[in-house]
Amino acid sequence: ALEKLSSLNGILYTHNKFAEQFGYFDYKNQVGLIAQEVEKVIPEVVKIAPFDMDKDGNSKSGDKYLTVQYEKIATLLVEAIKELSNRLEELEQKIGKEK
Question: How many CB atoms are closer than 10 A to CB 57?
Fold first, then answer.
C-alpha cells in the first residue's frame, strides 16, 4: 500500500475554460491526484468521468476523461499507515535493544 501511494503526486489546480463545457465553473484552487497516474497503480479507483460516460460505461467523447474515486483510496491509506506503524515499532525495538 505504501509503495503504491508513494508513487502518486498530489497536485494543486484550477478548472479552466475547457472545463466550463462540462459544467465546471468553480475557479477556486482545487487539490487532487492525476487520474492517469492513479490508474497505473490503483486502476480499481479510476473510472470514466460521469459527463463523458455513455449508458454502457464507455467514453462518449472518445477522449476518455477520467475521474478518481477518492473514497476508495481510504482503504489503502489505512494499510499504508499500518505499514508505517509497523516500521516505527521495529525501529523503536531495535533502538531499545541497542541502549
Answer: 8
